[in-house]
Design goal:
With 505 residues, the protein is an alpha/beta fold. The chain contains 19 helices and 19 strands. Helix content is 32%, strand content 22%.
Length: 505
């Protein structure tokens, strides 16, 4: 067996958007992922489902696995010939002990690469409006570990740090904040020097306290600041209120779970992130072509018999054209003079991507409205082919039944498969109020979410839903559910903004 390889990947400070492009590409091909507690939920959600996951903990004061064992795990997994990603919060070489992990790999001749990460000592102040250097205040920045062993004094030359006249950034130092400030004051630092403690920067949990070096420990205690947090000391901290930008975004402080079919890029997630939300994408469902294809292939051989072809989802479009029509060596010409109906903007976009513009799309995006529109416009004795999910609801069929002359072929082309994940404690985060809301774009994603979180108390969930059926599915589980005015992605985003503004999330 060939030797595997290890990648040390910096996951950044928390915001999934700050994972580098190279880091994301390497992670997508990983076969084993060894990860830290400080890796953001959004990045963890990007770990491939096929990869084996090994949680080594590593948060201040709480190490699930000793460093020596982590080094050994990397070696053993690589020797199996696997692609191993060591996923570390921040940057692997900045107090991340990445150098120690490479020593054993180097001795054993295991190939490796280092993918640098966006470090919290720069990014977290930036998200709080604090430039760590500014020509009017300082010309240097110094990064110091705030962590020390229990009962031991700091091995830090506070006097030398004070004499630099630069910005000081202490990582992992919240518990030692009083000692750090005391050391600086005893070294002669001006008690009125601006300083800040920054909690959970770049995420929805971001908070900051700005005070003086003399007052910062008490101010942080009074504010209830929690780890992970960094400490910044220097005149640049006085710019925080003036330059702060993250908290001004419409969805700053909102953490949203967005469920979607696996393999589908989520425009919903991107829009929410642009507005400041921390988004956790959980592909709770996937779609797979039906295993028994005989009936599907039989219908496709008789396409000329149908006057209407009706799609109710983007997945239905993709499966129909890519899995069945293409494999039969047929293209859009096989549709002949058939008219096309689509349910929803996403379905219409999937058709337009194939050069097909729907002849009919109801203004209200639900099955009943589509069925009613079809019943109104279909020619006498029309035959309708309805390729869709095997668990499709009956509303469209009930609406079409108003026309007894219509012949409807309800054709199951794909099955919905529910997924579970063990990387993120959603039940705990909802219970602690750390997740603001869940965003659902279909009733099937509601069911997939429920399947993925069997231990969750659904009464703790606020749900933003794209339509009536989706909202009904959420409420049946006990969620507090709200419905967007229109069944569009933009309308759901507007709903989330409104819910925040009204204090409902």
């Amino acid at each position: 067996m060939s030797t595997g390889k290890v990648w040390l990947v910096g996951a950044g400070p928390g915001d999934a958007g700050l994972l580098t492009i190279k880091g994301a590409n390497v992670l997508a091909r990983a076969e084993v992922v060894v990860y830290d507690s400080l890796v953001g939920d959004g990045v963890l959600a990007m770990v491939p489902e096929s990869a084996r996951r090994i949680n080594v903990g590593k948060r201040a004061g709480n190490h699930t696995m000793p460093q020596e064992e982590i080094n050994q795990v990397l070696l053993e997994e690589a020797r199996k010939g696997l692609r191993v990603v060591r996923l570390k919060g921040g940057d692997p070489f900045l107090f991340g002990r990445g150098g120690e992990e490479l020593e054993l790999l180097t001795e054993a001749g295991i190939p490796y690469e280092v993918v640098p990460g966006v470090t919290s000592c720069i990014a977290v102040p930036a998200y709080n409006g604090i430039p760590v250097t500014h020509r009017d205040f300082c010309s240097s920045v110094h990064v110091i570990t705030g962590h020390k062993k229990a009962g031991e004094a700091y091995d830090i030359d506070f006097k030398a740090l004070k004499e630099t006249k630069g910005t000081l950034v202490f990582l992992m130092g919240l518990k030692a904040l009083p000692d750090i400030c005391r050391g600086l004051l005893e070294a002669g630092m001006d008690p009125a020097m601006p300083a800040a403690v920054l909690q959970q920067g770049t995420t929805a949990g971001q908070r900051r306290v700005v005070a003086t070096v003399a007052d910062l420990p008490e101010a942080a205690k009074k504010a209830g600041i929690r780890t992970p947090a960094i400490i910044v000391v220097g005149k640049v901290c006085s710019l925080a209120e003036r330059f702060g930008w993250y908290e001004k975004l419409p969805l700053a402080g909102v953490k949203a779970v967005v469920t979607r079919p696996r393999k589908l890029i989520s425009s919903m997630a991107e829009k929410l992130r642009t507005l400041g939300a921390e988004v956790l994408e959980l592909p709770a469902i996937s779609v797979e072509p039906v295993k028994d294809r005989q009936r599907v292939l039989g219908c496709l051989e008789r396409l000329e018999e149908y006057q209407w072809l009706v799609f109710t989802s983007p997945s239905g479009v993709d499966i129909f054209f890519d899995e069945f029509l293409r494999k039969m060596q047929k293209d859009v010409r096989a549709l002949g003079a058939m008219k096309i109906a689509a349910l929803g903007g996403g379905t219409a976009r999937a058709l337009r991507a194939r050069g097909i513009f729907p002849d009919l799309m109801p203004q209200t995006y639900d099955g009943a409205s589509l069925g009613q529109e079809l019943a109104r416009v279909c020619e006498p004795n029309a035959k309708i082919l309805l390729p869709r999910a095997a668990i499709g609801n009956r509303e469209i069929l009930e609406a079409l039944a108003a026309r007894q002359d219509l012949v409807v072929e309800d054709l199951a082309t794909y099955d919905t498969v529910y997924h579970t994940q063990d990387l993120i404690d959603e039940a705990g985060e909802f219970a602690r109020g750390e997740i603001s809301c869940a965003v659902f774009t279909s009733a099937s994603t509601v069911r997939g979410f429920a399947n993925a979180c069997p231990d969750l108390d659904f009464t703790k969930v606020k749900a933003a839903c794209i339509g009536r059926q989706t909202c009904q599915a959420a409420r049946q589980l006990g969620m507090t559910a709200y419905t967007a005015e229109k069944a569009t992605v933009d309308s759901v985003v507007e709903l989330v903004i409104r819910l925040k503004a009204e204090g409902n999330i």
